[in-house]
Amino acid sequence: MATPDCICANWRSGSADCKEVGRYTCKNCLLVVPAFIHGGETQVQFGGTKYLWGNVPSLDVLQLRSNEGNDYKGHLRLLFAASGDFRNVVKSIARLPEGYKQSIDVTINDRDIDIVARNYSTLIRKSDLEILQQRIRPLIEDICKKIEGKLPSTTLAKTWTFGQRSMRLVLQKSSWDKLLAYLDTPDGLTMERENKIRAAVTLTESRKDYRDRHLLFQSNYHRIAKHRYWIDGLLLPFGSPRDDFKEPNPTFFQTADTWPIRDNGDPLNGWSSKEVEDTSSGPARNDIYGKLFYYVRTELRGFILRLSNSQISFCLFQEDASELPNHLETGSFSRIEVSNISDGGYLGIHHTVHLMAPLLQSPLVNPHATLITLFMNAVEEKMTSADQVASMTPHSPETKRVIKYLPPTNNGMSMGRYSTYIIKVLAARDLVATYDHIFKRYENDLKFSEMAQYLGGAVKENHTIIEKWPFRLKLQPGELGAQEEFDRLLCGGVSGKERFRGHSALLPSKTVMTILCPPSAPSLTPHEQDFVFLVGGSITAGSTTKEGPSKVIQLVAQMNERWLVYFKPAVTDAPLAWAQPKGSLICVNKRARLQECDFFRAKSVLQNILGSSHGGERASSDFDGPSSPSSRAMSLAGITDPTTPHGMIVAMPQTREAIYLKVLDATLTREYSGNEDVCNFWGLAEEEFYPGLRSRG
User: What's the whole-model pTM score?
Assistant: First the structure.
């Protein structure tokens, strides 16, 4: 057949119409079909499997002003259970109010040793490498020499103290050895070799269409900066000299032939695009990586300055997040941030809350203590084909809104299905949509409303740390700044489908026994004088009554250590269950912080106090006899003089309508019953037991 006037570039072997390699387009036909349309092996993610940089913007997990308050005097304990890079740690510490002077404990965990070991730039200066090898390496090398004979699976910890700051590192022996290797450049890895390895991922020909699609959404200036970054991998202002950056960064390269990150890995994704855009970069106003350089440097400077005048301790783990409860104190953390391990592809929300909620401080200790969960994939998982089709129609709200941001022009642009305009519209449609109804479907399917009942963590309705949908468009088309907001979101990084949820620990729903001993009293257990014990029996109904025992615990903890407090089931309740699982006995130290303790250490002491010799007996209801539990407890605690200012509070649930409280003191003995009297008791405690203590009734 004769060669057509326009040679079709979509010709394939076996075509009957054309035998030549295409150079022009046919009518109603594209020159090529982009790789991201027809798919194939390159449709999947390309490159390494490591996430050394964050893929959602950094988060201040404290937001102290909106929660505890800028004048908060409590001790802060933060847990980053699946940290990824440490951007959230940096932002949270750097954003602390200047007036906050209390101590801070930060626990950071990630199961990937590449994350725990940290990283910086792909190429570094010789002076940077010397710091690693001369100041950091000897610290790690000393530990590795001391543990040479240990089994690879042995977990070992080391704490370094620097003035009022400390860092504790907990690793298996095999990971200690790997960490040492992270400080040495692999044999044979030169700057030229490093550039070739990285370019084989970031600039491979098979991914050219994907890079072009990414650049389609960028401004002309940002395209230049992006391409420069793909070439050299250096986070520097565009015009900065690069001559000194000749040493491959050993924390990136554990072998001499592998680039560990995906080709779309970008440090821009870990920080707020608006905050980065608003950062001054001097005369080069459109140098996006220069802006990121100055922005991150400012964040790090604020972080370091805060460290210099704070009492702060860091503890680093390399564990699967599901193992953390075996290493950490129950009821001790002000904030727990878990990234998106709550997504269905990881631990899932049920398992995450079940594991992490018990680690939160009780609402009675800190009502602002929060578990922060992120759902990155929930919307995609629950979106149906009907949902997708509905948003694609010409008259859908999504389409109408997109057109306001991306109005079609009459400059002759192609409107074919592979045109750049259509590709932009299809991508933008997802950005302008709202997904509340889809996430509600997700919540209903996973029974979020029942989570508190079964998992011990309540969903927080007020989002005081981060918005529910923080990356959703906030402004309406036409409003001041709306187009800029849309353009930033279209550049990539986040999708607008990311959903955050906050959770709090529940008030205890079981009877609680607390014994607080005077400093001079003999030890009740080999290692602890103070403990909290969870026993069988339910607290009576009604919000006031239900909170009673826990409020007593908090009240007494804030009074002084000379008070004894315990609770026990009434005669009609179930027998005491001595076969409690490990972890049900929790110790309270002098700072009212909780930690686990072996139940069996205190078993005999508790039996003596309660008047039970074995698990099958019920607790005695006689509080007045000379051999009653109260008198035995007083004797056991070393209270021999009844005129000394010690006291005991005994709570005994009797019915669903009433709770029995009895106060034993040298100067006061009163009995109260009924729900209203529970509230009255707090005024009594403030007035006659500890003047000046704020009433909690």
Answer: 0.70
